[in-house]
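Researcher: I'd like a structural prediction for the single chain below. Treat it as a standalone chain; there are no partners to consider.
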Amino acid sequence: MYVAVDNGGTSTRVGITHDLTRPAIEVVDHFDTFLSYDAQMERLIKSISQLEARGIEGIGISLGGHVARDGRTVSDAVNLRDYEGKPYVRQLEQRFGCPVRMAHDVVCGLLGEKAFGALKDYDHCAYLTISTGTGGAIQLRKNGNALTVSISMGHQIIAGNPRVCLCGQTGCLETITGGKQIALHYGREASQITDVAFWQELTESLAIGIVNLCRLAYIEAVVISGGIGLHAPYLREHLTERVNALRTSDAYRLIWSELGERAPILGAAQLLITPEETIIH
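Model: Treating it as a single chain, here is the predicted structure.
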């Protein structure tokens, strides 16, 4: 049995699978993410401990923050600051005595969609999540060899944007598209905003970021996911329209996630069969 953990900025899910070659995850626990690292680790260990008697072969973790180069600690997490630098992987390895792998949730989302979802047929592809934050990952493949990289999609600067990001930089795309920063700026969730001008600004800025990414990295397909990306009623139509208006060729496609919120937890399990050297944190 393999354990997969989706540790997001808002909620955490713990799932199990017995076959890493199939998109089958049984979620056995679901709880609000603790902003305190110690409280989160205590709750997570309690949840996984209940599975020990069934035999744990490995634990894969999708986490809502950038992972350090060694893949064992969190280096930068705007929405989970208390997790930075803590021995996340080592604590679980010592407690459960099995291999533990961790990656940014966008890397896991990409691995999930690549194995079982919308990216199966693409060699050069990207996964974007528009949710609490705005993150991304790209995978480039040559001669059967893949390299997957987490990118700071939400922290590229959008010209004329005066907002100060939670990361400290001025002008970040995420100040326009990230759910947490939208709520701070407007005093309500993105799902509650029906103002056309708001969605026009969001989709215009996001389209610029997507086109920049595709042209810079020769991306063939971009999958859109995340709570806002998948469920905002105005996003899909407006974003497709704006990307099409900016594109100068048909070299890349904009598509929506087939796996939805399952992608990161499925990808967390895929970490256990993905060579470590193929992921750049």
